[in-house]
Design a protein that fits this description.
heterodimer, A: mainly beta, B: five-stranded mixed beta sheet, 16% helix, elongated
Chain lengths: 183, 170
């Protein structure tokens, strides 16, 4: 599926004619599980091209696949299935988000669609989920029109601060000078 | 002595046999929902049960412990579904068509509890409930409020829902 490679025009909240607030979300498939993320921080969707992947460091940080070339730079690529503690997947698409001005890619099975999610369809986490979750990645649920429940996930919560720092250091170590070398 | 005492005596005897002693208060009874887990019989008090649902459309939730099976949508209420077999130290056998979610509520906390099958709703005198000590394995005793010995020697463990839910929250 070819998806737009530019930042969505209206990624934030909006109101419809009745005044109901809605958000733009991306529906992703990760290890056979559908989840949704807010489009706000997504800057690009692209196909996964393994030939652009270099310096794979799979054992250095859980979830790290390697560093992916993009024009004259690189960005870390993380396997979202691993980060969500789901079975291994063969991803085909990459969701690129921004964190502190840096690009980070998440490999997913596929990106299904972009939808508007009405705020009235957002459900808080049940206490048993909120108090048991291992990381604050799932932050709410979305009850779709079909009565289907999707987890709303915060991609940037997949790693804690120490994890992000480790990733940054790894990135620097593979690309010690500005303008990372792309193989 | 009343001239009708002979008749009254017979009636009293009959009522005693039926457990309906005239002139005394009816004994408090408790309604229990009996279900199977790991080859054993368990029950919740019926007042703690909101509904019983089929085991369909459970949405897995990433990054939760293995005893959290996921969430279900019950008419707009997102409810967590929990497999308590691990907590109770029971084997994790595969689930059949008979498996159900027992939706419970305690102090506003709603939770779906997995049952391998739901057997029946029974009514028992409260006096028939015995403390679980010495008769139930210690793992189970921790979460049992009482036990009920049936006439067919079946032992039903009545679970202490507040204790169970507090354990599951941690």
């Amino acid at each position: 599926m070819n998806l737009p490679s530019s930042k969505p025009a209206n990624p934030g909240m909006s109101k419809d004619e009745s005044g109901a607030i809605s958000l733009e979300v991306l529906i992703l498939e990760v290890a056979e599980l559908l989840v949704a993320v807010r489009a706000r921080k997504v800057i690009r969707l692209q196909s996964f091209e393994p030939e652009l992947l270099h310096t794979a460091e799979p054992d250095r940080l859980p979830g790290l696949i390697g560093f992916l070339g993009w024009h004259d730079t690189t960005f870390p690529l993380l396997n979202l299935a691993t980060l969500l503690d789901l079975p291994a997947q063969s991803g085909q698409q990459v969701l690129v988000v921004e964190r502190n001005g840096q690009q980070v890619g998440f490999l997913v099975q596929n990106i299904q669609q972009i939808e508007r999610m009405s705020l009235k369809d957002v459900r808080l986490l049940p206490v048993l989920i909120e108090e048991n979750r291992l990381k604050p990645v799932v932050w709410a649920f979305w009850e779709r029109q079909t009565d289907q429940i999707l987890s709303l996930i915060d991609l940037l919560a997949c790693l804690d601060e120490a994890g992000w720092q480790q990733l940054e250091e790894l990135h620097k170590s593979v690309s010690p000078v500005q303008g990372y070398q792309v193989v | 002595m009343s001239e009708n005492e002979d008749i009254l005596s017979l009636v009293r005897d009959r009522n005693l046999e039926q457990g309906q002693l005239t002139g005394t208060r009816h004994e408090a009874k408790v309604r229990l929902l009996v279900f199977r887990l790991g080859g054993e019989w368990y029950a919740f008090e019926a007042q703690q049960v909101l509904e019983i649902s089929r085991l369909i459309d459970i949405t897995r939730v990433p990054l939760t412990p293995s005893h959290i099976m996921g969430v279900v949508n019950l008419r707009g209420d997102v409810t967590a579904v929990v497999d308590i077999r691990r907590v109770l130290g029971l084997p994790q056998s595969s689930l059949s068509e008979a498996a159900r979610i027992i939706v419970t509520i305690n102090e506003g906390l709603q939770a779906g509890i997995l049952a391998e099958s739901v057997i029946e709703m029974i009514e028992a005198p409260r006096s028939a409930l015995q403390p679980p000590l010495l008769t139930v394995d210690s793992d189970r005793a921790r979460y049992a409020s009482s036990i009920l010995q049936q006439k067919d020697d079946r032992l039903i463990i009545i679970l202490n829902l507040p204790t169970l839910l507090n354990t599951l929250k941690i």
